[in-house]
């Protein structure tokens, strides 16, 4: 037990928790996007997808609690690592170069993470926790995206998600030990591809619905 506590409390342990929870969120994003794409099939297809999820009952509840737990671990650990880095180096370097693999994604991880956290709360309040007894999820989504402000917020959040994932995906592989020079270029490429899919896949949905309204 002391070994586990010591490991998870170390910098390496915290990064490992970030990697594991990050992998889970990437999987969730892929599954969530696949489900959301049913909206292109019309209201019946999208409502049928939502009804199928609702029919899973306890399984969905367990999955939601698992995601909530992982989210808390990810956020708390991320903030701890960020504050630890600031404490270790309170004064920034005079020159901020992109050498050493530093990218837009890696340089902005805490900030894009903060944007995503705020958006998730906003998103849940507008979709997940609304009263659905006298309406459908398609109607809720359609009404939400008639607002240009909401469409703009959603697009900004998806850009932040794409930037966050562009670094987080391959960095998670590196953390768990898959950092061989033979594989890392491929993983970096896959990260960019996945980030673009996430950004465009989710980002175009509100635009599509707005144009249909």
TrEMBL record:
InterPro entries: Cytochrome_b-558 (IPR011138), SQR/QFR_C/D (IPR034804)
Keywords: Membrane, Transmembrane, Transmembrane helix
CC annotations in GO: membrane
Source species, domain of life: Bacteria
Stretches that traverse the bilayer: 16-35, 55-83, 104-125, 137-165, 186-211
Protein name in UniProt: Succinate dehydrogenase
Organism phylogeny: Bacteria, Pseudomonadati, Thermodesulfobacteriota, Desulfobacteria, Desulfobacterales
């Amino acid at each position: 037990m002391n070994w586990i506590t010591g490991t998870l409390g170390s910098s390496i342990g915290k990064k490992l928790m970030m990697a594991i929870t990050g992998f889970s969120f990437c999987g969730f994003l892929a599954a969530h996007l696949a489900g959301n794409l049913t909206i292109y099939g019309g209201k019946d297809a999208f409502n049928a997808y939502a009804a199928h999820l609702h029919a899973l009952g306890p399984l969905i509840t367990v999955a939601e609690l698992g995601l909530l737990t992982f989210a808390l671990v990810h956020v708390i650990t991320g903030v701890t690592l960020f504050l630890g880095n600031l404490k270790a180096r309170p004064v920034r370097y005079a020159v901020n170069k992109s050498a050493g693999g530093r990218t837009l994604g890696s340089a902005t991880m805490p900030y894009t993470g903060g944007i995503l956290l705020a958006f998730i709360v906003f998103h849940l309040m507008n979709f997940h926790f609304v009263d659905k007894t006298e309406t459908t999820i398609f109607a809720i989504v359609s009404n939400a995206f008639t607002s240009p402000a909401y469409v703009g917020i959603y697009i900004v959040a998806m850009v932040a998600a794409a930037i966050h994932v562009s670094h987080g995906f391959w960095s998670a592989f590196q953390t768990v030990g898959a950092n061989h020079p033979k594989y890392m270029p491929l993983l970096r490429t896959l990260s960019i591809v996945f980030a673009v899919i996430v950004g465009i896949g989710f980002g175009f949905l509100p635009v599509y619905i707005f144009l249909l309204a």
